[in-house]
Amino acid sequence: MHDFSVGRRSFFAGGLGLVAGLPSSGRTLGEPRRAYGERAPAEHAKRFFRASATPGTGTSRTPLQDALGIITPSSLHFESHHSGVPDLDPALHELLVHGLVERPIALTRNELRRLPTVARIHFLECAGNSWQLHAGKTVSGVQESHGLISCNEWTGVPLGTLLREVGLRPGARWVVAEGGDASRHARSIPLAKAMDDVLVAFGQNGEPLRPEQGYPMRLLVPGWEGNVSVKWLRRLHVTDAPAMTRDEAAKYTDLGPDGRAQQFSFEMEVKSVVVSPSPGGRLERRGPHQVSGLAWSGLGRVTRVDVSLDGGSTWKEAALEDRGLPKAFTRFTLPMRWEGEELLVQSRAWDETGARQPTREELVSARGLREGPDGFDHYNGITGWRIARDGTVRHG
Amino acid sequence: MVERTSAVLCTLTAGLVLAASPDSNVGRRPSDAEIAAADQTIFPDGRGLPRGSGSVKTGAVVYREQCAACHGPRGEGVDPFPAVAGGLGSVRSAQPNLTVTSYWPNATVLWEYTRRAMPYGAPGSLTVDQVYAVSAYILSLDGIVGPDAVLDQRSLPLVRMPNAAGFFVAPAREAIPTPARK
């Protein structure tokens, strides 16, 4: 293809100026157009992960301290993989739907797109997000403690639409989803949820899914622990019972104080965190500042967020940039003045079920401090950042 | 206030029957053989387990060659890789050691996970008989099956795991007590 941009730029930047004898002290023309955009060179926000012996397995964390608004850039969406990111050809990769269905089918992404699609904004949070805070550890910042969550616009076909397409036979109660990664990650989802708001997603923030987010097709299970949103989706098995795969029979179970463990504790409960100011940042000048943070609930909409500057003695209701989106980020803000004193900045959120985000003490009192099979899952306690007299921010 | 119902509870009480879309040609119709080949769902009652068998003795060899480097010669784990044995009776202690033998509720879970996800570097490379054998060996490390045991598609689901009664499914997560809204 002919690249018009190169020729035109050089014409105006060099050729025309010289030929016409124009003054050389004018402003320099900027960079040329480009086919696929990049962020400004001065911006460096990136996911964080530690090197390991198994680089394809584990997590990378979203830099929430750099987040603006409620949408996480696809390039910064957190990752969690069990056996690396597979390289799947969208022309060849098929999703098989079988089991207690009237008409089993296999379909590519392009065939899936013949069904009616929707676009929805939802957060996705790893069950283990913020486990360090349950354990009582001090963290380096919000990326370490809360970075296993992101919020994107997902485009896809409602799973209920796909199940109506194939028909359900008597006894259908669960859907077992299997991924196309090397270890064939698999989870069982109750049919009621499958018919409610689950998507077979192929789009992410206006583009096809990124490979690390499940290209070319994935499940997106709004409000539930991220592990059930099976990526690289290759099989949906409609069954009468859960399969009891490792990640639902043994892992992702919550070991209680009495030694018994709850299975299928899917929901990610109401939670919030201040992202600015937060560790790594600094209040440079006295005077007005904005407290800003993110709140979410896997059970619906966030209805209220309070902010405390004095470690929880007094609270003020924050303003919500509320778009009425269930199971999505809600951005909250509260203006504050800082005159060089020490502060402990915290937030607490409520959701539309009436549930309030608990304190760590309340949560530990109910659930105890014994580590389960994944450490600690489903921690949603209140978090605080300390601002020192010199304006630096730290945890603990 | 939104009533906090659980999808799990709903599905335990209500199934659903839907007629397929008439006259639709979305996707393609897979053959029964194709479905059978792709279907690797294994249920705790043994449904889905393929025919095959393996002994503890054979499993010891498979384990030594395929598993011990990460999970230790006796299943104790080699950091950062997890233990697969040990910790029996620790689930209710202050320092639980949650392994396959001490914690997992069903032997079928060990089988299905090993079959699809292990060994780490080459998932799916073990034969059906090797998976039965190495499962038997891991279960023998803590005496859940005897040293001469042979497991197959009929006997594996009958293995009684020590923590089988340690799990429950609640209609919804128990709410954490929080004082009334101020």
Could you give the topology of this structure?
The complex is a heterodimer of chains A (396) and B (182).
Chain A: H1 4-20, E1 58-60, E2 79-81, E3 95-99, E4 105-107, H2 109-112, E5 118-125, H3 131-134, H4 142-146, E6 149-158, H5 159-166, E7 174-179, E8 186-190, H6 191-196, E9 199-204, E10 207-208, E11 218-220, E12 233-239, H7 246-249, E13 254-255, E14 261-262, E15 271-276, E16 287-296, E17 302-308, E18 316-317, E19 319-321, E20 330-338, E21 343-351, H8 360-367, E22 384-387, E23 393-395
Parallel strand pairs in A: 3-12
Antiparallel strand pairs in A: 1-2, 3-4, 5-6, 6-9, 7-8, 7-12, 9-10, 9-11, 13-14, 15-16, 16-20, 17-18, 17-21, 19-20, 21-22, 22-23
Chain B: H1 7-13, H2 32-38, E1 53-55, H3 56-66, H4 68-71, H5 100-103, H6 107-117, H7 128-140, E2 150-152, E3 167-168
Antiparallel strand pairs in B: 1-2
Helix pairs in contact in B: 3-7, 6-7
Q: What's the shape of chain A?
A: globular
Would you identify the CATH architecture of the domain at 53-166 in chain B? Orthogonal Bundle
The level of helicity of chain A is: 10-25%
Give the number of domains of chain A.
2
CATH superfamily of the domain at 53-166 in chain B: Cytochrome c-like domain
Helix-strand topology string of chain B:
HHEHHHHHEE
Number of beta strands of chain A: 23
How much of the sequence lies in strands of chain B comes to under 5%
Radius of gyration of chain B: 21 Å
- Identify the strand order in the major beta sheet of chain B: 1-2
Main interface: chain pair and counts: A-B, 92 and 67 residues
DSSP helix fraction of chain B: 25-40%
Low-confidence stretches of chain B: 1-5
Q: Distance between termini of chain A?
A: 58 Å
Computed CA radius of gyration of chain A, to the nearest angstrom: 24 Å
